[in-house]
Design goal:
There is one protein chain. The protein is an alpha/beta fold and about 400 residues long. It folds into two domains: about 240 residues, 3-Layer(aba) Sandwich (Aspartate Aminotransferase, domain 2), CATH 3.40.640; about 130 residues, Aspartate Aminotransferase, domain 1. The protein contains 14 helices and twelve strands. A seven-stranded mixed β-sheet has the order 1-9-8-7-4-2-3, sandwiched between helices. A hairpin with a 4-residue loop joins β5 and β6. α2 crosses α9 and α10 packs parallel to α12. The longest helix has 21 residues. The radius of gyration is 21 Å and the shape is globular. The protein starts with 16 loop residues before the first helix and ends with a helix.
């Protein structure tokens, strides 16, 4: 029997049967009067996950990358200056996207494994006395390195120098899995997608847009058509879509939100922390290092792990797949061949996590890694045994 093992990649994530069933629908008419019953409450409830009261939720058929492009093209013009730090593959890709749209990109180079450098952002912004920098870009959760950055610290740094730039955040692999506070952190554009914390298939970009960012659409000169915020927002206001929507994904998203709210967002975040902490304890038991350079940067959705000197992480992930039919994340960019990744977000339990730890241990043992079979499993078991409640998992 094949095809029943969970995946341990940081997206797309495992899809609960409840959500697969919700997406298994017959064709329906998105121009029928009852479409309002699906779309309007959906957009309203998405605001609860972004934690915004004043922002607008815009969805597009696409992926998170489509959300990136929409955010740039709707709010900026060729030649505009933007400030961004490169500290992983996905911050790097965002830089590339901005450069392709002819923006003037100021790049702060950082070591991979570190996070968004709030103080260095502040220094650049303080020096920009005539406020030519129009936007500051940051990746909340850098999937390539397993690093979560402090977005609130960036907002405070911006406010401390009284700079009017907008703040754009990639929260693709954090939203609906780790706490994200769009209004409180002063985020103007928050970019996510359907295939990670929302536990669905790839196919929908989901963007939170502040009032300031929506106003910027009126003067932005980057070309856009399919990804036009104003066209989508105007159609959504009357419970419509400017073109054919992915209705099965919308019904799946409705069921996903129901699952998240039934569990409670705080409990969702605590569950992710608890699962991640068990995996981190296993990594330490193996004598290995996380790519994230300090505990305050540890991601609760993905752990990137350096393999020992002399080993190739791609050989390890290929072996785990070929022999045990389990997928783990490969190393990306500077991490290629040096690190593998364990995705532990979305539809994930402690029991599922234990199976992933056990599987990668077997693969490492097969390849003569200096790892004792069962070492990571046992420490994770002990941690999970002792942290069965939300309060315990937070305190451990």
């Amino acid at each position: 029997m094949t095809g029943q093992n969970p995946v341990f990649i940081p997206g797309p994530t495992n899809i609960p049967d409840r959500l697969r069933t919700a997406m298994n629908i017959q064709t329906s008419d998105h121009r029928a009067p009852d479409f309002v019953n699906l779309l309007t409450p959906l957009l309203r409830d998405l605001k609860k996950v972004f934690k915004t009261e004043t922002g607008t939720i815009i969805t597009f058929p696409g992926s998170g990358t489509g959300g990136w492009e929409a955010s740039i093209t709707n709010t900026l013009s060729p030649g505009d200056k933007v400030l961004v730090a490169r500290y992983g593959m996905f911050s790097h890709k965002w830089i590339d996207l901005c450069q392709r749209h002819k923006l003037d990109v100021i790049v702060i180079e950082c070591d991979w494994g570190t996070g968004a450098p709030a103080q260095r952002y502040a220094e650049h912004l303080a020096a920009d006395s005539d406020h030519q920098i129009k936007a500051v870009l940051a990746t909340h959760n850098e999937t390539a390195t397993g690093v979560r950055s402090d977005i609130n610290a960036i907002r405070k740094a911006m406010d401390a120098v009284n700079h009017p730039a907008m703040l754009y955040v990639d929260c693709v692999s954090s939203l609906a899995s780790m706490d994200f506070r769009m209004d409180e952190w002063g985020v103007d554009l928050a970019v996510s997608g359907s295939q990670k914390g929302f536990m669905l298939t790839t196919g929908m970009a989901i963007v939170g847009v502040s009032e300031k960012a929506m106003a910027a659409c009126e003067t932005a000169q980057c070309p856009r058509c399919y990804f036009d915020f104003r066209i989508m927002a105007n159609a959504n206001a009357s419970a419509g879509f400017p073109y054919t929507p992915p209705v099965p994904l919308l019904t799946g998203l409705r069921a996903s939100l129901d699952m998240l709210f039934e569990e409670g967002l705080d409990k969702v975040f605590a569950r992710h922390f608890r699962i991640a902490e068990g995996i981190r304890k296993a990594v330490h038991a193996w004598g290995m290092k996380l790519c994230a350079v300090s505990p305050d940067l540890y991601s609760d959705t993905v752990s990137a792990i350096y393999v020992p000197e002399g080993f190739d992480s791609d050989v390890l992930t290929n072996h785990a797949f070929n022999k045990y039919s389990v997928s783990f994340g490969v190393g990306l960019g500077e991490m290629a061949g040096k690190a593998f990744r364990i995705g532990h977000l979305g539809s994930m339990t402690d029991v599922m996590a234990l199976s992933g730890i056990a599987a990668i241990e077997m693969a490492m043992k097969d390849l003569d890694y200096p790892v004792e079979l069962g070492s990571g499993v046992s420490v994770a078991q002990e941690y999970y045994r002792k942290t069965t409640s939300i309060a315990q998992s937070r305190a451990a």
